Structure formats: C-alpha cells, structure tokens
Amino acid sequence: MSGRFEEADLLPISGLQHLEFCERQCALIHVERLWVENRLTAEGRVLHERVDEGVDENRRGLRTLRGVHLRSLSLGLSGRADVVELRRLSEGEDREATSLALPGTSGRWQVVPVEFKRGRPKSNSCDRVQLCAQGIALEEMFAVPIACGEIFYGAPRRRTEVRFDCALRAETAEASRRFHDLVRSGCTPRAENLPKCRSCSLLELCLPALSGGRSVSNYLASAMGSPQDETEDDA
C-alpha cells in the first residue's frame, strides 16, 4: 500500500463494495465504465437521493450532516457519506482523545458515519468495508480517531453498529490496495457463473456463462463484427 496518494489517483469509495461483491463487476464499472440499472440498484439510488436531499439538522446534543464529501489520501479514495452524525457526549464522559470540540458549542462531540442500504444485512463484509473507509476518511478530515459507524438497513428498518477494529481496518486497507491494483492493470477478471450473479444489474453485459472472461467491450465488438485486440484481457 502506498504511503499517500495524489488527488488525481483517488478512486470512489463505493468501488470497495463492488470489489468485495465481485472483482469482475468492479472492473466492468470502474475499468470498462459500464453500468446498467435494475430494480435493486434503482431502489438503492432513490434511497440515497432521499437521504442526501434532506436538510442538515441541529438538535440538542445531535447534529446531522448529509451528503458529506470525503477524501482519504492514505487509502486513495473519495466519495460522499450519506450522513455524518456529531453526537455531544454527556458531562463527565472522558473521551477527549476520540472526540472533538465544535466552535461555538460546549462539550465534546463524537463523529459517527451512517450509511443507508435498501436491503438486509449481508453475510459478507462489503458494506462494513465501505463504511470503514468512510470512517478512515473522516479521521483524516477531522483529525480525530473514529471508533465506529452505523448502517441503516431498509428491510428491517434499523441500524447496525459497525466497530472499526484492527481487523476491519486491515481488510479495508487491503481492499483499497486491490481496488487500485485492479484499476491500474486495466484488465477485467474472467467471469464465474455464481448464484449471486442473478442479482447483479450487469448480468446481461457480463454474460458469465458465455463470455469466457473476455472484456465486455471486446465481446460486444466481436459480436457486432468489429473484433478488437484482446491481449490486455488475458489472465
């Protein structure tokens, strides 16, 4: 992993979720620049738009910031947090090392990123990795350690706390490294026909049972009678 990235090298934080779900899907989106929306992605997009379009809130002991722009030069990622909550600690709570002072306010405040997802908690760690990357970016921006974040899942309609422990931070850093390596290579991994493919919006472009691992752009060009050089896609 590089020490620090340049602004021009930053990749979208959302790509980590694509990578953890499927490296081929990640390459189709971030290398080949392909995207197709289905019902699931449309519902997710609408949910994010509703959250982002809400107004920032200031209530006693809680400040809610929406659509917060994020940047991490250590991970080489940028993006937006759906919500960042600033929670004022109770009097007597000694957490100065993990909280900050806000101008014009009293007390100390904790920073908590909150991500919104349309479905249910997943068995893999893709959502947790994405949220942890947001937390690391906020740490760099606020110069304060962030211990945890929360994911609101639309199906059970409740939040799940995610602790940013050493294991999750290491997994997030490794995912970021793999993401940068994948984009830098310019290669699309070979397709695997797996049960999870049925829920992927790119299924009709990926063609896991037919494409034999070729890039989608080359596959489509070949099918249309315009074969292209496929050497970059050889694994």
**The CATH topology, please?**
Lambda Exonuclease, Chain A
Poorly predicted residue ranges: 227-235
- Mean pLDDT, rounded to whole units? 84
Measure the end-to-end span: 23 Å
Tell me the Rg in angstroms: 20 Å
CATH class: Alpha Beta
Largest sheet entry: 7 strands, mixed
Structural class by sheet pairing and helices: alpha/beta
Q: Count every helix, treating DSSP H or I runs of 4 or more residues as helices.
A: 7
- What is the string of SSEs from the N terminus onward? EHHHEEEEHEEHHH
> In percent, how much strand structure appears in the residues?
15-25%
CATH architecture: Alpha-Beta Complex
Shape: globular
Give your account of this protein's structure:
With 235 residues, this protein is an alpha/beta fold. It has one domain (7-22, 37-187): Alpha-Beta Complex (Lambda Exonuclease, Chain A), CATH 3.90.320. The protein is built from seven helices and seven strands; from the N terminus they run βαααββββαββααα. Strands 1, 2, 3, 4, 5, 6 and 7 form a seven-stranded mixed β-sheet that branches. Strand 5 (109-117), helix 4 and strand 6 form a beta-alpha-beta unit. Helix 1 (15-21) packs antiparallel against helix 2 and helix 1 (15-21) runs antiparallel to helix 4. It is globular and about 65 Å long. The relative contact order is 0.17. The model is unreliable at 227-235 (pLDDT under 50).
